[in-house]
């Protein structure tokens, strides 16, 4: 099996080595969905609860969903197969 450089992954359909951003599904969430998640996260933190986000897709069985901060206007929730883009309206 070839060594895959950082920032790249093997595309399941073709077996080619492609940049991470090109091999993922992309889903954009509405501002309301982003606000709802933000409010729930803050509430849990205030109550002393740590949240763990997990994707049910078979490719994501071993790793939690990670958070990638774009800038002040957005966040990406990233798992092994999909990027979920949350944009903020402020």
Which secondary structure elements does this structure contain, and how are they paired or packed?
Layout: E1 8-10, E2 17-19, E3 25-29, H1 31-46, E4 66-71, E5 74-78, E6 82-87
Parallel strand pairs: 3-6
Antiparallel strand pairs: 1-2, 4-5, 5-6
Walk me through the structure.
The protein is of the alpha+beta class and about 90 residues long. The protein has one domain. The chain is built from 1 helix and 6 strands. The chain has one helix at about 30-45, and strands spanning about 10, 15-20, 25-30, 65-70, 75-80, 80-85. The strands form 2 sheets. Strands 3-6-5-4 form a 4-stranded mixed sheet. The chain has a two-stranded antiparallel ribbon with strand order 1-2. The longest helix has 16 residues, at about 30-45. The N and C termini lie far apart (about 45 Å).
How far apart are the first and last residues' alpha carbons, in Å? 46 Å
Largest sheet, described in full? 4 strands, mixed
Overall form: elongated
Number of domains: 1
Strand runs, count? 6
Number of helices: 1
Low-confidence segments, given as residue ranges, are none
* Radius of gyration, in angstroms, nearest whole number: 15 Å
Structural class: alpha+beta
Beta fraction of the residues?
25-35%
Mean pLDDT: 82
Spatially, the strands of the biggest sheet line up as 3-6-5-4
